[in-house]
Structures are given as structure tokens and as C-alpha cells.
Amino acid sequence: MPTAKILLQLDPDPQISVFDSVVAVDSGVDQLFRHGGVSADQVRDLVYGLIFTRSLAELKNSAIFIGGSDVSTAETLLKAAVGSFFGPMRVSILFDPNGANTTAAAAVLAAGRHHELAGAETLILAGTGPVGQRAARLLARQGARVRIASRKLEKATSVCESLKAEVAEGTFLPYAVSDEASLTAALAGVAVVIAAGAANVQLAAASALSQATDLQVLIDLNAAPPVGLEGVDPMDKAKQRDGRICYGAIGVGGTKMKIHKRALARIFEQNDLVLNAEEAYEIGRELELGRVVIFGTTASSGTIQRKTGRTAEPRSAEQGGPADA
Ligand SMILES: NC(=O)c1ccc[n+]([C@@H]2O[C@H](COP(=O)([O-])OP(=O)(O)OC[C@H]3O[C@@H](n4cnc5c(N)ncnc54)[C@H](OP(=O)(O)O)[C@@H]3O)[C@@H](O)[C@H]2O)c1
């Protein structure tokens, strides 16, 4: 009898994400061990329960999902989980708190379908939240210049500094956007805008967007009205509006779900993966191009080493690629 696929769901929230549990079950997980209200100091023993119970050959059938609404707290769980591993005693981890990684990956993939990202001038409105910061990281790794807008210049500047520490080769430029004039200035020369603001907050009026003559791709991640970019419908998926390509939150969400499910499948293929935003993006590329990305392995200390994913043979339709984008 094959060993059951066990997913240990670690969530810092007292109420564990039902969304993440449903996606896990729908992705073929046999047994879901759901732990909520988890703090970093509890992670090691939970991980030990997972890695000491099966043979090395069977460990790839055990994996961890780290979620939760507070992304920075979830990051402490990730660090603790990776720090619990030693030698071959490890399992793969999917890290997607609040859907931040898969959503950012799907947004950047959407942008890249319609505009060359290398050298592109891009703007992330409300780019200081978890989704915006991850989208910024991914854009910069593709060679785009990234403007980060916030209501407060200090906040945008601080986020740009921490992004630069993560992506040394990246160009991050802080912008304060608090009215139509500052928004127009931030949009000047921008080809791709991603609105990553909180739910129910409009970040850009249609009048300001229409004045941005270089703008070609508009992506809004806020589905809850009012949406972030006036005139973009949440259902838009590569929808042409006034000669521009528009994506709404639900239009992006289809790709996000595919990445989430594929990532869940990947963590049961080997026992040494840590799938973060960059890997989510590579998995999205894999789905679009029909090629398998082979990731490097993780470090045994609390830090996570990332090696550039490389592509292998195209996948067959049965294996899942390419997805309809
Ligand atoms: N489709 C999906 O599956 C999916 C998954 C995850 C998230 N999302 C969506 O993606 C978006 C970003 O998520 P997130 O978690 O990164 O967002 P967040 O942390 O809640 O907010 C992002 C930024 O929005 C700005 N903001 C907050 N309240 C505001 C207000 N009243 N007026 C103007 N700006 C305000 C803040 O920027 P400043 O303070 O710097 O101005 C904040 O850093 C959300 O709309 C979320 O619903 C979608």
C-alpha cells in the first residue's frame, strides 16, 4: 500500500485557514494535520513528529504548508521549520501565508505575458503590503525597474531598502502617492501598474490612469469594491480597455490557484524543497511554458538558500502543462 500523503498545516492564526485546507485536499493530500495558533517555539517539535516517523525514502510523502493572515509571523514559523531540519531529515515546505506568494507570482506572470519585463518601468501602488513587496521582488528579478508607492514616503523608502537587501541587483524607487497630482507623477513613464492595496480601497481614478500615456498593462489585485484601479473589472483577464490590457483580481486568481495546486503537488515529489515567492513564480512559468523547473535544495540552518531554477523536458498534458493562461 502506498504511503499516505500527509500535509502538516502550520498557521499562526487561531482559526486555521479553511481555504488552504480545501486546496490541499483538492490537490490530492490524503491526511491533513491542521495546527492553528502556532508560534515559532512550537514548530520544532511539530516538525520532529513529521520527520522521525517515516523512512528517508518515504519522507517525500510528508510535507508542510505554512499559511496565516500575518505574513511576518508566518515567516518566523518558516525560519523555525527550516532550522529544525538536519542532514537528510527534512521535508518540503510550501510557504504561502495569506496567498501572498502565489498571488504576487500570478500578477507578475500576467504582466509578463503582455510586456517584456526586463528594463520595464513598473509601479506597484500600495506596494508596501506583503503581496506588493513580493510582486516587487519578482519584477526586479526579471529585470524591471520597480516604483513602490505608499501614502507615506518614509514607508515606501523603508520597503525599497529592505527589497534592495533581498534583491541586490534590483532598482526600487519610492513614491509618495496621496492625491491625483502625486499619482500622475508616479505613473509618468510607467508601462505596467500593479495595484496591491488593501480591500475596498480605490488607489487610482480612471482620470489619472487615462492621462498615463505610456501605460500598457493594468493589474488590480483588490476584488472588493471599490476596486483599486477604477475601470478595471475584477473579472478582467487580459481584457482590452482603451487599448490597454487589464487584469482584475479574479482574472489573476485563476493562475494563482493553478500555481497553488501545482506547488502542493511539487512538495510531495521530493523532500528538500522550500517553495517561496520566487519558486511560486517559476512554477507559474512552468505551467505556462509546459517545462519542468528543477529547484535547488534548502539549507539545513535557519537560512534558506535559493538556487536558480532550471528547466527540463516539456511536460505532457497529462502531467499538467501547459495551463491555459
Ligand atoms: N486574489 C487573491 O487570491 C488574493 C490573495 C491575497 C491578497 N489579495 C489581495 O491583494 C491585495 C494586497 O494584499 P495585501 O495583503 O498585501 O494587502 P494589505 O497589506 O492589506 O494592504 C496593502 C497596502 O495597502 C495600503 N492601504 C491600506 N489601507 C489603506 C487605505 N485605507 N487607503 C489607502 N491605502 C491603504 C497600505 O499601504 P501604505 O500604508 O503604504 O499606503 C498597505 O501596505 C488586497 O486587495 C488583497 O485582498 C488577493
From TrEMBL:
Pfam families: Mpt_N, Shikimate_DH. Residues 18-98 form the Methylene-tetrahydromethanopterin dehydrogenase N-terminal domain. Keywords: NADP, Oxidoreductase. GO terms for molecular function: oxidoreductase activity. Residues 114-222 form the Quinate/shikimate 5-dehydrogenase/glutamyl-tRNA reductase domain. Residues 303-325 are annotated as: Disordered. This is Bifunctional NADP-dependent methylenetetrahydromethanopterin dehydrogenase/methylenetetrahydrofolate dehydrogenase. The lineage of its organism: Bacteria, Pseudomonadati, Planctomycetota, Planctomycetia, Pirellulales.
